[in-house]
Amino acid sequence: MSEYLTTIGLEIHLQLATKTKAFCGCQNKFGQSPNTAVCPVCLGFPGSLPVLNKEYFLCAIKVALALDSEVAEKMKFDRKNYFYPDLPKNYQISQYDMPLSKGGFIEITIDNAVKKIGITRVHMEEDAGKLIHDEKEPFSYVDYNRTGTPLLEIVSEPDIASPDEAYSYLVCLKSVLSYLDVSDCNMEEGSLRCDANISIRPKQQKELGTKVELKNMNSFKGVKRALEYEQKRQLETILAGEKIVQETRLWNEDKKRTEPMRTKEEAHDYRYFPDPDLADFTISRDIVDKIRESLPETPQVKCNRFKDEYNLSEYDASVLVMDKPLSDFFEACVKLYAKPKYIANWLIGELQSYLNEHNSEFKLLSITPRHLTEMIELIDKGVINNKLAKDILKEILSTGKTAGNIVKEKGISQITDKSAIQQLAYEVLKENPKVRDDYVSGKKNALGFLVGQLMKKTQGKANPAIANQVLKHIIEKDKT
Amino acid sequence: MQEYCKLSANQLKEDIASKNIKAADIASSLISRYDKVEPKINGFAHFDKEILLGRADTIDKDPKGPKNSPLNKVPVVIKDNICVENELTTCASKILDGFRPPYDATVVAKLKSSGALLAGKANMDEFAFGSSCETSCYGPTKNPYDLNRIPGGSSGGSAALVAADETVLALGSDTGGSIRQPAALCGVVGMKPTYGRVSRYGLIAFGSSLDQIGPITKDVTDSAILLSVISGYDPMDSTSVDISVPDYTKSLAEDVKGLKIGLPREYFIEGLDKDVKERVSAAISVLKELGAEFIEISLPHTEYAVSVYYIVGCSEASSNLARFDGVQYGSRENRDSLMDMYKATRKRGFGPEARRRIILGTYSLSSGYYDAYYLKAQKVRMLIKNDFDEAFKRCGLILTPTSPTPAFKIGEKIKDPLSMYLSDIFTIPANLAGIPAISIPCGYSKEGGLPIGLQLMAKHFDEETLIRTAYTYEQNANWKKVRPNL
Amino acid sequence: MDIKKDTIRYVADLARIGLDSGEEELFAKQLNDILHYMDKLNKLDTKGVEPMSHAASMGNVFRKDKIERSLSSEQALKNSPDKKDSFFKVPRIIE
Prior knowledge:
Number of domains of chain B: 1
Number of helices of chain B: 15
CATH class of chain B: Alpha Beta
Shape of chain B: globular
Structural class of chain A: alpha+beta
Shape of chain A: elongated
Number of domains of chain A: 3
CATH architecture of chain B: Alpha-Beta Complex
Oligomer: heterotrimer
Low-confidence stretches of chain A: none
Radius of gyration of chain A: 29 Å
């Protein structure tokens, strides 16, 4: 693979979370009963006409600006004509040659360096409906609730050079977009969809290789896996002396491979022409400036601010800002209890592990800033130690109870009473004479083991520092 | 029984006020006329006596009804490409067989609010594709003045029903002359408002950048009344224009003194039908005597209008009609595969003219041809509009014949699409430019007594000058109106 | 420039319209006549002319992001030639 270069381009479809659809007043909400969030316009009934949702227009400009994409002075809508049952008018209202914006970029961090991935364009278009295929009988069923949902299509330049970069692009894109609060950006729920184009070529070759389109990935990791598989498949194909076929392949998550689409790929002639039902749109520089001023702090700016204001490391700051709700939570905690580094550690360490374990997102948790700061205060007061705190945090996350209440209920405060610890220390030393001898003969780590044993005896409740001190003291005393 | 259906809306309004006529009586008059005359005319696509009587009953029983509305209890027939909630709306096509829209077109809602008596759906060329009303799946409508001849199209049903007194008022739609040409051929008044004056929401689209709904009436006064009710900005239609609606009845005044009227040389060509030429010249004389000044003007790109219209119109239509595929509404030809279902449904559901226009439109939008056809046509369209802008610097109104000939025989042109298209040659340019235009009767042909129409065109949103001039001529015309012999 | 039967067949396919063989020929001839008539457009010089895609001059027409009443699924499906529960039903699409 080192003899070959990979070129990847990503096409994202983002559903915007406006109250109503792109061109009509139906509610824009996921998960409603089939064919109940529909009207003559989004059903494409004869005689119906589209009218553009102003909020969609404004959100679209927000996204373009956040991606540093140049917002057009004039834009229009075009009809993309093709036949499919999930497309009620058998054309999609989209944008062809005068889209919302052109150019732009996303910065990703790869191999500890920052790389700019270019964005070709951002355009507006309406979503199609949902098709369900009958398992047994040769029929399909259509639900038009989703038709007319406002979408943005974000097309990247083919600047992405590896599946890792592609993954990073998606994570960074989601991070930037989540700051705008215009979309749930959730691939699993379908509010963010991603198609990829990938080709490989020998290092010396200037011309790009034949590209293959990949569809049907359902998660960011899925995109990465699909690209990794396809990259390998293309390499093997070329090394075997065969040619890459230009085609669309579907990612099969179960079998972990890409497969050619079963239908014969017809070259689509979409016959784009300006939609005569929609007026042209002039986007004044005043509106653009006003929206630009109202944009929230970008993740990049916030990251720098965190480094300066809270003295966090680049790594810590960047992890926190990746997720806007998390970074907001962090700042709220610091306001209550001014120990930013400490708070950051908990959020980046234990909390992230919890999220990974439960495959969840921060904003779905029901923890409040006070929950965390109260717990940290208890550690500082010596009521609990770090080990106990880890368990308590898990309890907080699953029950929502406060640290104070959990400590009371379960009686799991830290043992700090010296005499109690002393008692246990004698027991530990009696049970582990060889280790004690090891320590005496110079093996300093042996003390750690003894402390560990004492911790075990107290189910982690003993204050480790005191335990350490007491054990050492007893051993020293006994030496003499 | 009083023949209310033979009155104009204005006359009927006065009678209703003075004699307290019930909607039920008016409905009975319509039904009686229908029974007598409809078998000869075939002007309706859908007519239901029970529904009509039910509606009349509702109007009569409504204490809060709009009693002061000029349209209260007045019968209006709606062209079958305009949606009426829960009523059959099929565009005279098999592919929309049984379709009952779950909503009213905006103009229909306005009529209902004004207390009008909706009196059925008028026959038309299928999807408004035609100039003769011969492509309807319900069979052709006949011209009341000669049952062997066409009434014009595509609003042939609307025009014939008004001419035959099967209704008092009608709504039609005009994309390339579909209100004006049948109005001329049937001896009634037909107006195409400025593009954007009347909402298109609920009008089943043919050429979206060309279509307008407009009134077809017995005289100019009724046209002004109906236009005032249906006009206005509609937030459901992005192409409707937010300009206030004047009271058009205030333009019903005899006054053309000093009005400069342009006569475009491209319309007064060699070989114009001699009756048409004679009647239009006579009308010009009348207006001259009343003080109008005539000047010769040129609209140099007129010869390209038909080509531009068919490319733009068919391109838009090919996209607008893509939704008729048997999935959500209308008729479906069941097949095992989706592709076969689409093809069979659209083959069986659309008549030959519809299929021809869809194919022409698809071709002109297709890859490799878009620049040469669609894009080119839209540029020439701009040139045609500029011609009018230039002309209106020199005159306030333009006068032309509406149709190159009076009504031709049924079957005469149907096999020759191109020759059929050329019969729209005088009406098409107004749709391309978006300007308002009206056709008013100006007499009959010497042999056969076939109606002949005079067309007036005005600047954007200047329906007032159209109405004033049309009214002036109508009140001073020196020929006598002849009712069709039915 | 002459349209052949297979062009008609290709375009009819794009438009999802079935045609008999007889019709393919008839339409080819009719379309040829019509397009031949339209050739005159090509003789016109339109350099620098903007295409006119809208007849009315309104621009920037919007609606408020306010929820309006939707149809019930009964109303939506009322005209459907084939349905099952609350879904529109079509012949199976192969994916």
